[in-house]
Amino acid sequence: MTGLFAIMRKEWRSYFVTPAAYIVLAVFAVIAGFFFYSMLAFYVVSSLGGGSFGQAPQLDVHTMLLQPLFLNIGITLLFLLPMLTMRLYAEEIRGGTLELLKTTPVRRMEVVLGKFFAALGILLLMLLIVLGYVLLVAHFAHPGWKALAIGFLGLLLLGSAFLALGLFISSLTRNQIVAGIVTFAVFLLLWVADWVTAYAHGGVMHFIAYLSITTHLNNFVDGVFDIKDVVYYLSLIFAGLFLTARRMELAE
Questions:
Q1: What is the rounded CA–CA span in Å between residue 26 and residue 171?
Q2: What does the pLDDT look like over 69-95, one tens digit per residue?
């Protein structure tokens, strides 16, 4: 475990020594803030209009505001998380420091987990920004804390799956730009995989649709906790981490 924490601290420092973490967090805060303002403005306008006898209609804050906000945050993670993962191994391979890691007594899985948890720390900071926005709503409305917690769990699992897969893709190349582009392409395909059911049917198509990240994210966003969705995301996380460790073993 000592090696894991050493790698995690090293990667965490490297995020903040370079502008990468600051840029990602700043861009995320601006985009998330824009989405939050847009959804909140729409909710307020909808609440003030359409009531009878001068009374504003009672609208569900979770359905009208938080659900679309969470979905848009998921799309934002799809675009930004490749910027966090593309350098994790590609930079090591290009700079030759991967060879130094191989000579240390740290186990391969500890290296993989250390890099993963360092990126996960940035993801948690991003979700804390979203939580700050949501708490503003909670001060004036009652969003439903259970559904809110389930929604945040879904975003955490979604982001963790993205990080694990991005980590594996980064281990396949020495070029950070290539890693970033391929990672984004894979994320995008997983996001739209369920579109195939709109024009084709059959067992294979339904399996492809099952692989869609949005199919499982929607339940979390709706405040529905289904263990099958948790297993799906945990499977992606395990697959990404296992394949990365295996890739490093084969590279030795």
A1: 27
A2: 999 999 999 999 998 888 887 776 666
